[in-house]
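idk why but the lab printer keeps eating my pages so im just putting this in chat instead. protein + flavin-adenine dinucleotide:
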Amino acid sequence: MNNVFVICEVDEGKIADVSLELMTKGRSLANQLKCKLEALVLGHNLKGIEKELYPYGADVIHIGDDERLDPYTTLPHTSVIVDLFKKEEPQIALLGASTFGRDLGPRVSSALQSGLTADCTSLEIGPHEDKKAGKTYENLLYQIRPAFGGNIVATIINPDCRPQMATVREGVMKKEIFDATYKGKVNKIDVDAILKPEDLVVKVIERHMEKSKVNIKNSSIIVSGGYGVGSKENFDLLFELAEVLGAEVGASRAAVDAGFAEHERQIGQTGVTVRPKLYIACGISGQIQHTAGMEESSMIIAINNDPNAPINKIADYAITGDVGEVVPKLIKFYKQNTK
Amino acid sequence: MGLNVIVLAKQVPDTRNVGKDAMKADGTVNRAALPAIFNPEDLNALEQALRLKDKYPGTTITILTMGPGRAADIIREGLYRGADNGYLLTDRAFAGSDTLATSYALSCALKKMSKIDLIIAGRQAIDGDTAQVGPQVAEKLGLPQVTYAEEVISAEGGSITIKRRLERGVETVEMPLPGVITVNASAPECRPRNAKLLMKFKHARTITERQGEAEDYIDLTADRPYLNIEEWSVNDIESDMNWLGLSGSPTKVKKIENVVFQAKEAKHLTPADEEIDELMKELIANHTIG
Ligand SMILES: Cc1cc2nc3c(=O)[nH]c(=O)nc-3n(C[C@H](O)[C@H](O)[C@H](O)COP(=O)(O)OP(=O)(O)OC[C@H]3O[C@@H](n4cnc5c(N)ncnc54)[C@H](O)[C@@H]3O)c2cc1C
Ligand SMILES: Cc1cc2nc3c(=O)[nH]c(=O)nc-3n(C[C@H](O)[C@H](O)[C@H](O)COP(=O)(O)OP(=O)(O)OC[C@H]3O[C@@H](n4cnc5c(N)ncnc54)[C@H](O)[C@@H]3O)c2cc1C
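predcted complex ->
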């Protein structure tokens, strides 16, 4: 009872990265609160899935394995989770801010009338004093999130309703094995006893999922391009630089919107969050929604023809010049110096 | 066969292009300087409704918005683009609502409306940025939901077929009506204002707005009822006050910090060969690259 729960997402038969990242966060919250960490996995053909979760410190893994839970649709997943949460009364429930989590989370929170905070960038435990009501609270979840297009950061709390629910985007938390030999127990959910015919009214007719080819999140060097790169052809220059440096290519939203790069390369508030060793920003102005996804890079090099571009404020090196001139020189002098 | 479609639309401050003039001296955003606009994805939602109206004659589109009095602006904007009528839900009792209290108030208003076939919301509002209201309204009404819709393919025989845009692919789903869908920015843009409709609805007003205006406008609605924008307060919907506004909101804002654009010392370089050569040597020497 009153434990920390992570609602896990299954992606091609494996636990999604964002869920493992939340398991790591959930483990540290559970340690702080001196309670257990529990995972919840719903889907079909999940045999052995618990083995992926134990090393992240799962004490209990609730598994609902039923063909009606795969592919994902909102209503059956909601019914199973609401049923379980009414019995288990978690104090905290976390899920990924993916299309899955952002479809499911609000539905579950509405059914339980428990608050939900979207897109948290940090989760902490702390006290709260409600002076008006003369009440004090210990150990609340501080759900810290940007809002207002990234121009403000709000700390949201959920004093009275449980669970305290929050979604977090992929790449925001760090995934880390807690203990490779950790063992918890499995609770098999009797899905059949919960689902009703009205849960199954939405039917998936067709599905085309593309396997992600791009792996910017795990790349230690990122060459990123913005609208200032100018064209899809000029983006090839960035790919060339990335190739010689062993880097991945990222993009700003303006570059993605303009069709210079694929959506999965988008970095920022509505793309992925990255923290590479080196981030080379080419023709990117450095709007807050972009920098929110890359400002924790260890080193930032900005290439921009505007010496006052905001990106220069967070850069370690600001090269004032044309992308088309600077990038080939980076390639040239890198090659010269590593020969 | 015509459908009765409701579009949920929110008036939002334009947070997308916070220009220099909207920045205060301390580097934070001056919200008052941002124009109030029709939430962008709600325009995508409206376009999907308009396409249904094109395809299925007899379809009516009603805009529902909750907000302060000036939110009537976006109802007019909707009328100029082809919606048939609108409701403004406005009351102090709704102030301070989180997404659950917002969804509850909207769902109470929706229950007061005559037989609804389809509710279309935007995926996400650009100020609160949560994307929670659509699914929560659906749950409060006990209706099925389809989020991330990009295209309504058909709405016939009591069910609707929708193409969804997910992170890594597309999905086609079928949902029985009535139901709720939320529409993505990747869906087609909304058509512009129609000149005839602009003329027709230019003087559409809520009762509060009419009270503040000259007599002749009040007279206008007597023979042109379509110029009346319905205004509902908390007394016009059946609701439990404990679920509304601040007291009906499980989430509380404990603290708000404005993001300050801090300057850090950058080394400024030019594209000169020596400087780039030097930079590369430095990066290789400290093992950042190579
Ligand atoms: C800094 C800050 C942070 C916040 N964080 C949270 C949070 O984490 N959790 C939370 O529960 N609340 C939060 N809120 C409150 C939330 O912004 C409001 O409840 C808001 O009214 C609705 O949420 P949204 O703007 O995110 O809308 P979304 O859920 O993003 O809106 C989705 C769609 O619902 C429809 N819709 C939304 N609002 C209305 C409306 N008023 N009228 C008609 N249609 C509408 C529109 O179609 C819209 O496109 C926060 C508020 C602030 C100021
Ligand atoms: C809710 C919300 C979420 C968002 N999420 C994201 C997100 O996740 N990621 C994101 O990136 N954006 C996001 N944005 C958009 C963001 O606000 C900016 O619009 C976007 O980051 C701008 O991209 P850009 O820097 O490539 O383009 P611009 O702002 O147009 O900048 C182009 C830059 O290139 C420079 N330039 C031009 N030509 C050259 C040249 N030849 N050589 C060198 N430099 C040149 C210019 O000086 C300029 O600085 C979001 C916005 C909102 C409202």
